[in-house]
Amino acid sequence: MLNKRFTLFVISVLILFVGCVSERVNELQSVEIRQYNGENLSSFIELRDVSIKGPQNIDIKSYRLELSGLVNNPRKYTYDEVLAHQKYKKVVQINCVEGWKSKNLWEGILLKDVLDEAGLDPKANTIIFYAYDGYSTSLPLEYILDKNILLGTK
C-alpha cells in the first residue's frame, strides 16, 4: 500500500512539474505567400520603400492612433486597442505614381470601424492621414467606405 501511495505521489509531482514548465516554441523557416485565393501576389521583399525617412522604429508602448477633427467622439487608440478590433484580410494592388505596382495580401482592421466609433460629423467628406515620419495624405470618405479600406497591421 505504501509503495502504491509513493508511486501516485511521484506521478502527481511529475504531472505538476510538466504542467509548470513553459511550453517550448519551435521557430519555423519564414515563407512568403505568393498566391492567395487564385491571385498571384507580388513579393514583399521587392516592395519598394518610398517613405520620407526610411523604415521607422515605432515604440509600440507609446504608439497612438488618433481620430480627431469632424468627429463627435475624438479617440486615441493604443496599439493593443487597434489590434483588438475585428481583423480582415484583403488582396490590395498598390499603383505608385512612379510607375511600379505591387499586389499583396494585407491583414488589418476596417478604417470604417474606428470612424464609426468616433462618430463622424455629417459634414466630414475627407480623411487626412499623418504618418510618424511626417508624411501626410488624404482620401475621400466615400472612397474609404466604398473600398473597405484597411488600416494594415500585417
From TrEMBL:
User: Which N-terminal stretch is annotated as signal sequence?
Assistant: none
Start and end residues of each Oxidoreductase molybdopterin-binding domain = 57-151
Q: Tell me the Pfam families matching this sequence.
A: Oxidored_molyb
User: Where does this protein have coiled-coil stretches?
Assistant: none
InterPro entries in the record: OxRdtase_Mopterin-bd_dom, OxRdtase_Mopterin-bd_sf
The protein, known as: TMAO/DMSO reductase
